[in-house]
Amino acid sequence: MDVLDWALEDPDGQVMERVRETSDEIERRVATLFDELSADSSS
């Protein structure tokens, strides 16, 4: 199993806006990962 380290900032103690930015970034990265995995399995 491969491991990805996205080196994201820990949102603990951050203002809500920063927490949302981190959450949005995680969502984008997961969506991209699913797209990449889906493309690999189609090949």
Would you give an account of this structure?
With 43 residues, the protein is mainly alpha-helical. The chain contains one helix and no strands. It has one helix at 16-42.
Task: Give the SSE map.
Blueprint: H1 16-42
Kindly name the structural category: mainly alpha
Strand content: under 5%
Main sheet record:
none
Which spans of ≥5 residues are poorly predicted at pLDDT below 50? none
Percent range of helical residues: 55-70%
Mean pLDDT comes to 92
Number of helices: 1
> How many E strands?
0
**Which value, in Å, is the CA radius of gyration?**
13 Å
**Termini separation:** 19 Å
**What is the H-and-E element order?**
H
Sum up the overall morphology in one term: elongated
Output the keywords.
43 residues, mainly alpha
Briefly characterize the structure.
The protein has 1 helix and no strands. The chain has 43 residues and is mostly helical.
